[in-house]
What we know:
CATH architecture of the domain at 201-300 and 342-429: Orthogonal Bundle
Strand content: 15-25%
Helix content: 55-70%
Number of helices: 15
CATH class of the domain at 201-300 and 342-429: Mainly Alpha
Structural class: alpha/beta
Largest sheet: 5 strands, antiparallel
Strand order of the largest sheet: 2-1-4-5-6
Shape: elongated
Amino acid sequence: MSTEQSVAKTQLTVRNIGGIDSTSVAFTPGVTILAGENATNRTSLLQATMAVLGSDNVSVKGDADTATIELELDGETYTRTLHRNGATIATEGEPYLDDSTLADLFAFLLESNESRRAVATGGDLRDLIMRPVDTDEIQAEIDRLLDERAEIDRELDELDELKDRRPELESRRTELKAEIEDTKAELAEKESELETRDANIEQTREEKAELEDRLAALRSKRSTLEEIRYELETERESLESTRAQKRELDREFEELPETPVGDIDELEAQIDRLRGQKQALESEINEIQSVIRFNQEMLEGEDAALLDVLDDTDDNDVTQELLPDETVTCWTCGSEVPHEQIETTVTRLRELSQDKLSTITELDTELDELTAEIDSLRQQQRRREQLERRRSELESELERGTETIERLTDRRSSLQDEIESLETEIESLEDDSYQEILDIHKAANQLEYELGRVEGELDDVEAELTTLEERLETERELKSRRADLSEELEDLRTRIDRIEREAIDEFNEHMESVLDILGYRNLERIWLERVEREVREGRRKVEKTVFELHIVRKTDSGATYEDTIDHLSESEREVTGLVFALAGYLVHEVYETVPFMLLDSLEAIDSERIAALIDYLAGFSEYLVVALLPEDAAALSDEYPRITEI
C-alpha cells in the first residue's frame, strides 16, 4: 500500500475479506481516495470498513472460513470476526455500532446499498426514510397512554356509581341510627322490668348467677354463629368469582395455539438461510457490476495497454483488412468480435443484475415476514406461560377457599350444637316461678344481639361512606389527568405524521442541494410527495401512507415536464438513487453517530461532478472514503490523500 500522507490517526487491519488476503490501511480525517482500476480490492476494503463499524453486508474470502477486521479509532480498538457456517456467516467481536441500520441505509453507499437500489427498483421509499425513526416506540407509548386512560375511565365510572350509592347509604345510616335508638329503648325497658321482677322473685344468688352466665354464653355463641355465617357467605362468593376467572383463563388457554420451540428454531434457521442467500446475491451483484464496468471500458477503448497486448496482428494482414470497422478485441481470447455482440452481453448482464436486485428485495420482504411471525409466536409463548402461572395461582386460591369453607362449616355445626346444649341447660334451670323472668332474659338477650348487629352494620355503612368521600375527592385529579392524557395522545398520534412531513421537506431540500451541485441540465428537480393510497394487505384494502418520487425534466428549450424512474437511463437512475441516499445521510444527520461515509460505483457521474460532490460532502463526514477510477480521482484536489495499493 502507498499513500501520499504517512501520518494517520486511524488504522484498519483486514484479513480474508472479499478479495483481500491481508492488508493494513491508515486513514486521516477528511477525504481519502481509493484510486485504482476495477478488481483492485477497493470495494472489499470498503466492505471491511463497513463490517468493523457494525454492518453484516460483507463477504468472506472464497477460500477462507474465517475473516477478521480491526479498527483503531480515537484511542479505541474495534474488532469483528466472521466465521463461515455453511451458507451463512456468523459474527462476533465489538464493532463500533450496536445497530448499523442507519449507516447501512445512508452512510455505506456501495452499489448494493438498499437506498440506492430502492429508487431503481421502485422500492418502499417511506420505509427507508422512516426506518431509523423509532415509530414503534411512539406506538408503544400511545398504547400505554390508552391503557392508562381506560383505567381512569373505569375509575370515573365507579365514582359515578358511588355518587348514586351515596344517598342510599346516607338513608340507610339514618334508618340504622333510628333502629339503634329504638332497640336501646326497648332493651332499657326489658332491663327495668327484670330489675322489678328480680325484687319479687326469691332465688339464690348462685342460681341467678349461673343462669346469667348461661344467657351471656348463649349471646356470645349466637353472635359468633352470625359472624361465621357472614364469613361463609363471603367465602362462597369469593370462591365462585375465582372459579369464573379460572374458567375464563381455561377457555383462553385452550384457544391459544401451542407454539413448539422447534417452530421458532425452524423459522430462525430459515432467516439465517435467507440472509445467507442475500449475502451471496449481493456478492454476485458486485462481481457482475465489475464485469459490466470492465466490458464497458473495453467497448469505449479505454484500456489501451490491454488492447495492445491482445492486438498482435500485422497492420498489413489481409484478414485484418477484411474485418468490419465495428469490431472489438475480446479481452478473454484476443479475437475480434462485433461491437453489438458485446453490447448485447453487457445488456444481458445488466438485466441479470436487476433480476438479482429484485430477488434481494423479495428476500428482504420474506425476512420481514418471518421476523414478524417469530415475534408473534414468541408473544403467544409468553401469553401461554402467563396463563399457566395465573391458572396455577387460581387453583391454589380455590384450594385455600374450599378448605376455609369446610373449616367454617365445621365450626358453624359445632356452634349450633353448643347453642342447643346451652338452651337445654337454660331450660333445666327454669321453674314455673321463674318462667316469666327467663322469657324476659331471653328477649333482652335477643335485643342485645340485635343491637350489636345493627351497630356493626352502622359501622360498615359509615366506613363505606368515609371511603366513598375519600374516593370522590380524587375525581377532580382523575379528570385533570385524563385531559392531560388526551392531549398527550393527540400529540403522539400527530407526531408520526409530523415526522413524516418534516422528513419529506428536509429530503426535498437536501435532494435539491445535491442536484444543484451535480448540475444536470435535463434533471430540473427530484422530489418526494407524501400521499395516502389504498393498498391490499391480504384480503383487506387499507389506507397506507407512501412516499412518491417525482422527477422533473427540462428540455433544451427550457420547458419542464414530469417523468418517471422507468423512463430514465441507467446512469440517470444511478444518479437519482445516489441523490436520494445522500439526502438521507444529511436528513438523518448520520455524520453525528457514524464517523465514516463510504462511496463506491460512481461511474455514472463524470469526473467534474464527482469532484464537486465530494467537496460538498467533505464538510459533513469525519472520514469520507471514496473508491474512484484513476481518471476520476485525477479531477480531485491533490490535498486529498490517495490509497493506490491494497
